[in-house]
Write a structure and sequence with these properties.
Length: about 230
Amino acid sequence: MLPKLVVFDMAGTTVHDADFVNHAVVHGFASKGVEISTDQINPLMGIPKPIAIARVLEQNGDDRFADAIFVDEIHEVFLAEMLRFYHEDPRVREIDGASQVFRVLREHGVKIALDTGFSRPIADVILDRLGWGERVIDFSVTSDEVARGRPFPDMIESAMRVLDVEDAALVAKVGDTPSDMEQGHAAGCGWVIGVWEGTHTREQLLDYDPTHLVANVRQVATDVFGLAI
């Protein structure tokens, strides 16, 4: 049985970015004189970046976590870094097999959506860079376009509304972070598929009860849905 809709995460799942997201967040903090490590960021991957920034400040005992202007200033540096990176860096590419997986699923009548913890400006740069327009995917949604980003189900529910899919049991969520797994379960997805060659290990994702675990996005088609690519 195939789903009617598969919602794929972007960075780390379908888009290779050499783990630059962590480094851009660290640079954003450094620009305001706050030192953090990438280890503090990794558990928060996948959630809206302003929320991740505020949580790190709070975990550090920094009262400025509640200062929206301070958080926004860090996020603006992060945003500029990411836009530059995705525009220019030669390491940016699709993860091997991603567009093939999209194509094969669509050939079998499955709709393809992308969702992300990034804001729309970053997502658009990525989509343009990779040539992922309407001939490749059916829909994309970003964390700043819904009331609540991951781990809440809002982005998946937005994709379902736009693509006319009523039953979440016929939706698959694919991602490489705990927040992807939590989002899929919160939406009631019939498949919650963890990809462990991204930001988190297989063992780390197991703690979030995925229905399936695969090494890479290519195996979503071959191992989970039994399709040749």
